[in-house]
């Protein structure tokens, strides 16, 4: 973001707001949602539309292995 802001301030670049359309969003795992959440907190974030043909479903289960134990993260 620092580089983009620098280019905008110098007049080299221009910020054009847009729309990001994500289809089949039920196929994303928790890492994708985490990345999108961080990206949406940015002042440069686009409008995001999530689409799916599912009613209600669980987000894919992520299993993280650490040196000490196996940890499961469930999200719905």
From TrEMBL:
GO terms for molecular function: ATP binding; DNA helicase activity; hydrolase activity. Keywords: ATP-binding, Helicase, Hydrolase, Nucleotide-binding, Nucleus, Transcription, Transcription regulation. Pfam families: TIP49. Belongs to the RuvB family. Its EC number is 3.6.4.12. The keyword Transcription regulation applies. It is an enzyme of class 3 (hydrolase). Coiled coil: none annotated. This is RuvB-like helicase. InterPro entries: P-loop_NTPase, RuvB-like, TIP49_P-loop. Residues 1-62 form the TIP49 P-loop domain. It catalyses: ATP + H2O = ADP + phosphate + H(+). Transmembrane segments: none annotated.
């Amino acid at each position: 973001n620092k580089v983009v802001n620098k280019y905008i301030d110098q007049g080299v670049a221009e910020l054009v707001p847009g729309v990001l359309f994500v289809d089949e969003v039920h196929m994303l795992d928790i890492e994708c949602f985490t990345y999108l959440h961080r990206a949406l907190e940015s002042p440069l974030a686009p409008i995001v539309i999530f689409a799916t043909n599912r009613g209600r479903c669980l987000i894919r289960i992520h299993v993280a292995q650490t040196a000490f134990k196996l940890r499961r993260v469930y999200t719905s």
